[in-house]
Amino acid sequence: xxxxxKNRVSQRLAALQPSATLAVDAKAKALKAEGKPVIGFxxxxxxxxxxxxxxxxxxxxxxxxxxxxxxxxKGLPELRAAIAAKTKADSGVEVxxxxxxxxxxGKQAVYQAFVSLVDDGDEVILPAPYWTTxxxxxxxxxxxxxxxxxxxxxxxxxxxxQLDGALTERTKVLLLCSPSNPTGxxxxxxxxxxxxxWALENGLWVVSDEIYEHLVYEGEMSYILAEVPELQNQTxxxxxVAKTYAMTGWRVGWMHGPADVxxxxxxxxxxxxSNVSNVSQVAAIAALEGDQGVVAEMKEAFNRRxxxxxxxxxxxxxxxxxxxxxxxxxxxNVSGLLGKEINGRVANTTTELAEIILEEAEVAVVPxxxxxxxxxxxxGYALSDEDLVEGASRLQQxxx
Length: 400
Ligand code: PMP
Known about the structure:
Radius of gyration: 22 Å
Order of helices and strands: HHEHHEHEHEHEHEHEEHHHEEEHEEEH
CATH class of the largest domain: Alpha Beta
Shape: globular
Strand content: 5-15%
Number of strands: 14
Distance between the termini: 66 Å
CATH architecture of the largest domain: 3-Layer(aba) Sandwich
Bound molecules: 4'-deoxy-4'-aminopyridoxal-5'-phosphate
Structural class: alpha/beta
Strand order of the largest sheet: 2-8-7-6-5-3-4
Helix content: 40-55%
């Protein structure tokens, strides 16, 4: 007689939260399939193709037989050298190429950062709104995310008082993401210096996700390791080519950190994925070492869309729109629209509001619940200028 297997799915995976974006996303796709002209502000990727010289380098690499074989798990030496050079040029931070690990996107770097630092029950301070993957990666590693809410009233940036309030004996790591997904907020050099000193005083690790570093529209990008170099022995930096070079599909990210930890991470990666596709790694070298004019061009387009979207959203009563200065997201506070009648319907949560916006205006936005902060919506502006204006006009009409 057959015996049913017990606990079919491990507790670890059973505890993973379904992405709150899925409901809206599935509906948007269904509407599109029906031929409805849905305009999507949901995407987290540039709408540009990867620049031609990068694609060309990859095409060449595909014909080279040495790329048909396994290579060193932690990344091609040429790429790690290019990352070290780029890091020095952009931030002034010196990194030994040996302490850089090339990963399958920044996402794998995020996961590996937590796996390498966190034991069961260790706490990770997670500023909210946060990118959806962080709490899941922390929990998968056995850690406990401790959310610190920084709302639109404080430009989505945590204060030292808040960090003090979240600190316990189990706190091991502070996560920072600047420029931020989902808010577009950017910490200044002064703010990062203060937070870095605080982490140093309290003996914490910092995981700094800098993947949107080249999309800062006002002022300059600041780097925590440039502000507080003493932190280098207790910081892991996460980065990648996805957002800067419109290369989300190529799956190349990286992480760097102190030698003892990176050694263990390289060992871990050698058991789960080995090297990132060589063709993609060669493409990443071309991206980092080639003409950076393409980055400036895309940034200019994003900046234009940012200005337009913010202006158009600010014309809507009930929406509060702090100025996002980085990445390609606007994160309006829409709590003023809850409980109000919209085309005869009422939304009591932002998940319901996103549903109404989708059904009544055929515009897809991601509800703040996905990022740990109900009351907000995320709108990505990596879409064409025409679509952006059309989508924002529909929102103006819906809430008029
Ligand atoms: N960090 C942040 C903040 C992100 O928004 C993303 C992409 N959504 C990533 C890391 C990972 O990007 P990728 O895995 O495509 O390199």
